[in-house]
Fold this protein.
Amino acid sequence: MNLLRNIKLAAPLGLVTALFSAPQGGAQVAQPVVQPLAAAPDPADGFGGYLELVRAKARARGVSQRSIDAMTDGLTYNPRVVALDRAQPGSRPGSPPAFWPYYRNHVDAARISGGRAMLDASAAIVPRIEAEYGVPGKMLMAIWGHESYYGRIKGDFDLARSLASLAYEGRRRSLFEGEFLALLKMADRGVPRSKMVGSWAGAFGNPQFLPSVYLRVARDGDGDGFADIWNNRADTLASIANYFRDAGWRRGEPWGVRASVSAEFNRAGLAEKLQAPNCTNVHARHSLWKTVAEWKALGVQPQAPIADQTMATLFEPDGPGNGSFLLTGNYRVILHYNCSNYYALTVGLLADEISR
C-alpha cells in the first residue's frame, strides 16, 4: 500500500565529523565537531496535503463542496487512533484461546436481561420488521446488545478526524479512505455533523455501522424520512435486519444449534477441504457440510429443533468433549458482521437466551 506522506528525512543518528589539522609547531588533533541531531519528523507534517487530495477525490465523486468544507475544515491529525489501531492483536500462532471464558464475558445476566427488556419494549415494532425482513427479533437484539450494549456504549471519537488520520497513516489506506469518503457522502444525505461520533475505528450508532454500511443498508423504520440508527429504535432494528437480509439470511432457519456427540463418533476425514476466500482461519475450524440427517446418522444429535434437510457444519470450539454446535448458513451471515467464530457464536447464543 502506497504511503502518501510529506515527511522530511532525519539525518542518521550519531553522525560525527572529525576534523584534523596540522598547524606549524607540531601536529595536533582538533576536537571532533558533532553535528546536531535532526528533530524526529512529525507524523502529521503531511496531513494537510493529504486532506487536499481526499477533498479532490470527494468532489470527483459528486460530494458537494458544502459537505466537504463542513467535514474537513480545521481537521487535525489524531495520533491516538493510530496508536490504538497499531495495538490491535494480529493472528495468534498456535491454538486459539478457550471459547467458554469469552462466552461468559459476553453473554452475562445483564446483557441477557437487557435484551429481554428491549425486546418487550419493542413489541409494537418487531413483528412488522420480522415479517418484512425475515430476521428474528431475538437476533436483532443480540447484535444490538453485542455491539453497543443496547445503545449505552457508542463511542465519542470524532469520526471524520479518526478516519482521516487512519487513512493518512497508510497501513490500511484503502479501507479507511473509502470510509472517510463515505462519511462525506453521509453529510450530503443530511446526516448532521453532531451525530458523526463513534468508535476510534469509525463505527457508530446502535449497530456500530461503518459509513459505507450505513449508506448501503440503513433504513428508515418509522417513516419519518431519516434513518436514525443513533436514537431511533425502529430505524436501528430495521437497519440491522436489512443488513442480515442483504448478507443472505434465510427466513425460518436457525443460526445453529447445540449438539451432543456420541463417544463412538469418528472425526477422521471431516475436516473442510475447501479454502474460504476470506477469513480463512475462521472457516478452517469448521467441518465438512452435511445434512442434519447425515449428522444424526454419524452420532451427532441436535439439542434443539432443526429440519433434517438443513445443511450444517460441525464446530467444536474447545475441542472434543467441550461443547459442540451444528452451524447453518445463517451462522455465516453473522460472520459477515464480524468475521470471528467467537463473536458469531456468542451472538447466536445470546439471541437464544434472550428468547427463553
